[in-house]
Known about the structure:
Shape: globular
Largest sheet: 2 strands, antiparallel
Number of helices: 7
Structural class: mainly alpha
Strand content: under 5%
Radius of gyration: 16 Å
Order of helices and strands: HHEEHHHHH
Distance between the termini: 11 Å
Number of strands: 2
Low-confidence stretches: none
Mean pLDDT: 81
Strand order of the largest sheet: 1-2
Oligomer: single chain
Amino acid sequence: EPRSAYTSFAVHEESTINHEYAHQVQQRQFKDEFLGERWSGMAVGVPCFLMEGTARIPELVLIFDTAEEFEPSDARTGAYLYDPESADELGNFTVTMNLSEEVTVEFAEDYLRTSQEPQCQAGYQYALGYHLGYIATQGLAAIGGVESTMNLFTRIGYNDIPFEEAFEGIYGITWEEAVPILAALISKEYLS
């Protein structure tokens, strides 16, 4: 039985504030972007897995007082998808579906690679960022330090460096070399 990180409404509220604040910091890295519209800043050259995956780190880490309390298995299970046809007039998805595919290494590799496609926020890819993207960014944080994923936003947004170049500069390997490693981690850690 997965344990929820949200033990009360107050904890859930705090985690939501942490998560959304992380998005504000992400967006601020894009110096020339007009940030008054949906998807501004983050959608320019940033893979979908990184958007929500990076925001989940402070969402979940900052609500606990001790390392022992931090076991949010709900971030590693129960992935869902947005139905791309269910977007309302503001672009918010109103229908979710459970992920029915098995999260194999191949599935995770495909997810990571297609996470870089334009319009990846159109439902399928974006929603998986809360779970599979979180696992990938946890792995990147373990390798490069907790600040490393946010440094990708700075390099991409503020310094106008393409994702692949920014990634290699921070982690010392190419994105293509990293994909199978991160996919193996996702496949191992995701609890279907």
